[in-house]
Amino acid sequence: MINALESSSTRPYLIRALYEWCTDNGFTPYVAVQVDDTVQVPREYVKNGEIVLNISFDATSSLKLGNDFIEFKARFAGSAREISVPVGRVIAIYARENGQGMAFPAPAPAAADAGNNGDAQPAVPAHTGPARMPLRDASRGTEGDAGKIVHLVTGEDADETVEASPADPVDEPPRPPVGGGSRPSLKRVK
Questions:
Q1: What is the predicted pLDDT for the residue at 124?
Q2: Is 172 left (phi over 0), alpha (psi -120 to 50) or beta?
Q3: Residues 49, 128: Cα–Cα separation, whole Å
Q4: Counting beta carbons within 10 angstroms of the beta carbon of residue 47, is it exposed (0 to 12), middle (13 to 18) or buried (19 or more)?
Q5: For a designed S-S bond to 99, which of 51, 126, 153, 187 qualifies (C-beta 3.0 to 4.6 A apart)?
Q6: Beta strands in the chain (DSSP E)
Q7: d(CA 65, CA 90)
């Protein structure tokens, strides 16, 4: 019997399931990808180290949602491109129309110094991009939790808690309907 440490990742299976759910319900599946050297995408469309790709049937050809890679052909500004994304670099899959989907933990950074023989702690890269907007956890939000903000963090930042004050000039996302058990969803913010 295989234990949990030896089993394969659930990420490719969840990506395929959500892709199928999107297509079955007439939604457009988008994947958000954290870009590095292993990701083959048009670099001119990468912003802040991430790219969002439309992986619908209409936008792609030869789509393969494998256990290790998502591969397809797509047009960018009229030019056909081969796209190859390691499944481990996918940070979210969601429906464009309603934002419902799933976010995944950000991939672990590669060790900066491969010759350290495991003696030193792996280096945590300094955050070089602009600060990210926190995501409100609308699925658990109530009036008493109005100031709670959920951050997706890695490394040393994981112990920090951020409280938002009502005086913050940040645009508040819409609240879920009262009395309904709304489901969590991803919302694309421009």
A1: 38
A2: beta
A3: 10
A4: exposed
A5: 187
A6: 29-34, 50-54, 61-65, 69-76, 79-86, 90-95, 101-103
A7: 12
- The string of DSSP letters for 99-148 reads --EEE-PPPPPPPS-GGGTT-SPPPPPPP-SPPPPPBP-TTT--GGGTTB
Record the tokens describing residue 123, joined without a space.
């280096």
What does the block give as tokens for 38? Answer: 């292993």
Contacts of residues 82-88 at CB distance under 8 Å and 24 or more positions apart, as own/partner, are 82/40, 83/40, 83/41, 83/53, 84/39, 84/40, 85/31, 85/33, 85/39, 85/40, 85/41, 85/53, 86/38, 86/39, 87/9, 87/11, 87/12, 87/15, 88/9, 88/11
* Cα–Cα distance, 130 to 135 (Å, whole number): 15
Return phi, psi of residue 13, to 5°. Answer: -70, -40
Q: Nearest Cα to 34, choosing from 98, 114, 129, 138?
A: 129
Q: For residue 142, what pLDDT is reported?
A: 43
What number of other Cβ atoms are within 10 A of residue 85's Cβ?
Answer: 22
The pTM for the full model equals: 0.58
Spell out, as residue ranges, where the chain has pLDDT lower than 50.
112-169
Q: Distance between CA atoms of 7 and 1, rounded to whole angstroms? A: 10
